[in-house]
Amino acid sequence: MKPLTNIFKQKGVQFAVVALVSLFIGWVLFHSPKMKDKPKLEAKKEIWTCSMHPQIKMDKPGKCPICGMDLIPLVTGGGSTEDSTALYLSPEAVQLANISTSVVSHSAPVKELRLFGKVQADERLLESQTAHIPGRIEKLYISFTGETVHQGQLLALINSPELISAQEELLESAGQPEIFEAAKDKLRQWKLTDAQIDQIVRSGKVKNNFEVLAGSSGIVTSKRVNNGDYVTPGSVLFEIANLSSVWVLFDAYESDLPFLKVGNSITFSLQALPGSTFTAAVKFIDPVMDPTSRVAKVRVEVSNSNGKLKPEMFATGVVKASLNQYKEKLVIPSTAVLWTGKRSIVYVKQSDGSFKMRQIDLGPMLGNSYVVLGGLKDGEEIVTEGSFSVDAASQLEGKPSMMNQ
After folding, report:
1. How distant, in Å, are the alpha carbons of 78, 338, 397 from that of 83?
2. Is the pTM of the predicted complex or chain greater than 0.85?
3. Is the pLDDT of residue 391 over 70?
4. How much is the pLDDT for 32?
5. Is the pLDDT of residue 309 over 90?
6. What is the pLDDT of residue 368?
7. Rg (CA), the chain
8. What is the DSSP code (8-state) at residue 259?
9. Which of 87, 103, 171, 271 is the most buried (most CB within 10 A)?
């Protein structure tokens, strides 16, 4: 029988071998190989679509096969701080859509009004040439409308039986001072001058025909009589317009009137005189609207000594009116505004580069810009070019837009 110590030694060796074998088998069964580096995630594929036809989806930029517009990216990625109401556009998308921005600031608001009108004769220089004595038109020296006359020019000869009797009375009363003076006064009432009366007295003969002389210079705009017509005192023979100074009457609509006042300067041009411009001040604004055309007349006065301006010529004028009541308000380009009919919106650029829709209150339009009454602050940056592209991208991503609040 072997010694007890040897037996314990042999069993210790066996236990050690069994333990090593068990460890090896456990390592084989439960050891997971070292994980290899995870493959890099495939970059998210960018989809390109058309702002007008969102059903078009392409895997690369290009033109819309329907309308030919430049495609815009549908998947644009987000900013560092995601905002569900903000639109995030990549720099490539901003450049492709030709989006530009500008900082809102105060500026002196000037309202530019475009008015249309016509040249008209100055009403204060119109004259009706009337007959002062009764009688028959013996001869006319003005035969057509449009003829130029000068003050004192002979216009017509009138044969007047009443005037013949008055001359005979004057000649017969030459030795009776009181009756003589009364006869002269009677002739003066018929607008005979003292020179004409003295000529009758000196000649001692009765005149059968009396002259009608032009009371002013101008253009005959209307001829009312012909040879042989019988006229009474006050009958209009001719209408004469002095065109040395003319009016230009512009039509101003109701929406224009709040910005117009007497003294405003109007620069205007005429279709008949291309290349020539005229400047005049507003002298009068009609206080009553025309019930048919819904306009009020705005009048300027222009010297016309050279006769270039003729009545009924068409004129186009521009008035630049300073709006002092809005001098503390912001002014933005009209291209920045998207108008839905009820709402006016702009897109404001955020600090993280995203764009966010903002509803604003607009004041009067200033040509190519608007006065902003509320909704924006001085120093904010807004989209001034490409607003529609930004809004289309916002619609495609289901975010607030001009069509979706």
Report:
1. 8, 22, 13
2. no
3. yes
4. 46
5. yes
6. 86
7. 48
8. G
9. 87
- Amino acid at residue number 261: K
Alpha carbon distance 301, 314 (integer Å):
15
CA distance 57 to 240: 75
The pLDDT, as a whole number, for residue 191 is 80
CA-wise closest residue to 106 among 375, 329, 363: 329
Give the 3-state secondary structure percentages of the chain, helix then strand then coil, rounded to 5: 20, 35, 40
HEC string of 125-194 equals HEEEEECCCCEEEEEECCCCCCCEECCCCEEEEEECHHHHHHHHHHHHCCCCHHHHHHHHHHHHHCCCCH
The pLDDT score that the predictor gives to residue 80 is 44
- The reported pLDDT for the residue numbered 240 is 95
Lookup: tokens for 238: 């001719």
C-alpha to C-alpha distance for 149 and 155, rounded to whole angstroms: 9
| Residue 228 DSSP class | T
Centre a 10 Å sphere on the Cβ of residue 202 and count the other Cβ atoms it contains. 8
> Buried b / exposed e across 10-43, counting CB within 10 Å, b at 16+?
eeeeeeeeeeeeeeeeeeeeeeeeeeeeeeeeee
What's the rounded mean pLDDT across residues 301-320? 93
Hey, which residues does 365 pair with through a beta bridge? 370
Give the pLDDT score at 302. Answer: 95
Tokens, residue 330:
């912001």
Per-residue model confidence (pLDDT) at position 328: 81
- Residue carrying structure tokens 């607003």: 387
**Integer Cα distance of 7 and 9 in angstroms:** 5
Q: Which amino acid is at 370?
A: Y
Q: CA-CA distance, 73 to 60, in Å (whole number)?
A: 9
Query: One-letter amino acid identity for 7?
Result: I
Query: Distance between alpha carbon 286 and the CA centroid of its chain, in Å?
Result: 20
Using one digit for the tens of pLDDT, what is the confidence trace for 42-78?
455 677 877 677 678 888 888 989 888 888 776 544 4
Residue 351 · residue 344 · CB < 8 Å: no
